[in-house]
């Protein structure tokens, strides 16, 4: 293999590792923030169920951030598709 091919392969490996690190940190931050808010609200209102609600919210937020980071979901994509359908209906 050529030297330039090795550099390209190393660059791809580093990009993949950085994406994995970003996904892990995004999941950790989403879960930690939501659990922290839920714990604080439980202490404030002297309840025990708010933390469960925020745990589910944190889980859903972490899945969304993972999809955004991997490129499977682009925020605002549905609005653009809807606008295209509306414009095509008007043109006909």
Report on the structure:
- The chain has 3 helices and no strands.
- Helix 1 packs antiparallel against helix 2.
- The N and C termini lie far apart (56 Å).
- 7% of the residues are buried.
- N-end to C-end Cα span: 56 Å
| Rg, Cα atoms, Å | 21 Å
Please outline the major beta sheet. Answer: none
Number of strands: 0
- Unreliable residue runs: none
Instruction: Encode the helix/strand succession as letters.
Output: HHH
Beta content: under 5%
Number of helices: 3
Question: Into which percent range does the helicity of residues fall?
Answer: over 70%
**What is the typical, i.e. mean, pLDDT?**
87
Query: What structural class do the secondary elements suggest?
Result: mainly alpha
**Oligomeric status of the shown chains?**
single chain
Shape: flat
Compact summary:
The chain is an all-alpha fold and 92 residues long. It has helices spanning 3-45, 50-70, 77-91. The chain contains three helices and no strands.
Features:
single chain; about 90 residues; mainly alpha; about 0% strand
Summarize the topology.
Layout: H1 3-45, H2 50-70, H3 77-91
């Amino acid at each position: 293999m050529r030297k330039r091919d090795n550099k390209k392969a190393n660059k791809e490996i580093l990009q993949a590792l950085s994406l994995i690190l970003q996904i892990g940190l995004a999941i950790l931050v989403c879960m930690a923030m939501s659990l922290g808010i839920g714990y604080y609200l439980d202490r404030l209102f002297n309840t025990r169920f708010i933390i469960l609600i925020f745990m589910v919210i944190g889980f859903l937020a972490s899945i969304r951030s993972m999809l955004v980071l991997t490129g499977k979901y682009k925020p605002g994509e549905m609005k653009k598709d809807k606008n295209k359908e509306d414009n095509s209906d008007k043109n006909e």
